[in-house]
Every structure is written in C-alpha cells, then in structure tokens.
Amino acid sequence: MARLRSEDAAARIENGFGPDFSEALARGLAVLTTFGHERRPLTLSDIARGVDLPRATTRRALHTLTHLGFAESDGKLFRLTPKVLTLAGSFLLSNQISMILQPACDALSAEFDETVSAAVLVGDEAVMIAHAAPRRMATAGVGVGFRIPAYCSALGRVLLAGLPDPALDRFLDQLKPLPLTARTITDKSRLRLEILQSQAEGHALVDQEAEAGFCSLAVPIDRYDGRTIAALNIGAPVERIGADARATTHLPRLRDMAKAIRSQLI
C-alpha cells in the first residue's frame, strides 16, 4: 500500500483533520448523503455537482458503493438500495438513547393521537432518531432518518439552544436560511433571539415555519451533566394544538417525559 505523501499529511493537519483522515471514505459518505436531498434517482453529473467533486472521483465512489450493494444503477441513473438502512440500523441498535426514545414517542403519540418525534442535531439539520404517528395520519417519507432544517423547526431550535455560544455563532454565521413558508423567520438576528428565548424558556414553539398549517412544540432532553443531547417534539395541525392545549397538556407532558428519559440515561 502506498505511503501517504508528506505534503498530503501536512495538508490534513493544516485543515484540522489529522494524518489518519481518509479522503476516500469522506468522499464516499458525501456521495451517500447527497441522495438525501433528492427523492429521485440521480445522474453522475447530478451527484458530482452535489458533492463538488470531479466526475472521475465521483464515478469511483459510486462504483464502490454499487459493488458493495449500497447503490444501484441502470447505466445512467443511480439510486440507493435498502442496504443503506443497515447503517442507520447499526446506530439505532447500538445507541442507548434511541432505544429509550422510541417507546417514549409511542406512548405520547398514543396519548395525544398526534405525531411525536425525537431528533439530534447533525450539521444544520435536526435528524429524527425516533418517530411515532397515529394510523389516521399519512406521513410518507417522514420517520427515523428524516431531516428537517434546524433553524425553522421546534426540534432544531431546542437543539441549537443547547449549543455553547461559540458553536451557535458559527452556525448562524454559516447559515443561509430560506423561506419554506410565508411565516419562516430568515432574519438571523431574529433567529438568534428565538433560539435564546427557547433556551430561557426550556422549550421551542414553531408555528407554520417549516410547513404551512403545521405547528410543533419541543423540549430538550438533557444528559446528567446538563448537556442537551436530543429533543422531543409533538407536532399537529394548528387547529388541533391551540395555545391553551399547549400550555395545559402538551408542554407539561413533554417535560415529564424528558425528565423520565433523563433518569434512564447513564
């Protein structure tokens, strides 16, 4: 196996990655995650643009993923295969909090007959690691692994409120907020105030910012040392989750469940 060139090792250290960082693995993972932003099969050119890599480099990554069974192609279009779910399955089976959160979501969803989710912060998105919904609701595409922008979701704002100040500053500096609905807050100064308010109040309420007609309420799940490691959320159409209901039923139960979950964490 060829040794790492000294200039490449120096570049890795300069970028903060360290000499053991694998660019090939990073490129392969980047190609995998590109599919998450599109619901349709993608061409080689689509993927190369999405990961900002040369076509030849992207082709090698896709060839490897296809050979390993994580992707498939008809010769022109590429799509992921169900084998990708084994990666998420490994996380869910090995992660203590996921095993605790799913029963909690199931219980709250049955109690309120509404959608309940738990998520963690990954980059600039809240990623669901537990999810439950009433049978009457059609939630195609929404479930474990579903991603939603952190800046305009209750789950995301609770998670952002748990960041140290420097990390929150970096998030907002790099953020390019888009108006997903007519009510989406995109002004960064106002977003900071909303996040700080969530931090002070211990919960976040987002009214039709991520989806028109949909309101969500979230609380943090803190570890024994006070660090926020996840968020718990109830979401419903605005007509079914009015201010009175949020204050007298939904919020107290979310907080009670978050407290119960914290007591189970090691």
Structural features, described:
The chain is globular and about 60 Å long. The protein contains 10 helices and 9 strands. It is about 45% helix and about 20% strand. It folds into 2 domains: about 5-80, Winged helix-like DNA-binding domain superfamily/Winged helix DNA-binding domain (Arc Repressor Mutant, subunit A, Orthogonal Bundle), CATH 1.10.10.10; about 95-265, Beta-Lactamase. The strands form 2 sheets. Strands 6-5-4-9-8-7 form a 6-stranded antiparallel beta sheet, sandwiched between helices. Strands 1-3-2 form a 3-stranded antiparallel beta sheet. Mean pLDDT is about 85; it is low at about 1-10. With about 270 residues, the protein is of the alpha+beta class. A hairpin with a 3-residue loop joins β2 and β3 (about 75-80).
How many independent structural domains? 2
Look at the structure and give the CATH class of the largest domain. Answer: Alpha Beta
Q: What is the ordering of alpha helices and beta strands?
A: HHEHHEEHHEEEHHHEEEH
Uncertain spans, ≥5 residues at pLDDT below 50? 1-9
Instruction: Please summarize the sheet with the most strands.
Output: 6 strands, antiparallel
So, CATH architecture of the largest domain? Answer: 2-Layer Sandwich
Provide the spatial order of strands within the biggest beta sheet. 6-5-4-9-8-7
Instruction: Tell me the fraction of residues in β-strands, as a range.
Output: 15-25%
Summed up, the helix count is: 10
Mean of all residue-level pLDDT scores = 84
Shape: globular
Could you say what the CATH topology of the largest domain is called?
Answer: Beta-Lactamase
Summing up helix and strand content along with how strands pair, one would put the structural category as alpha+beta
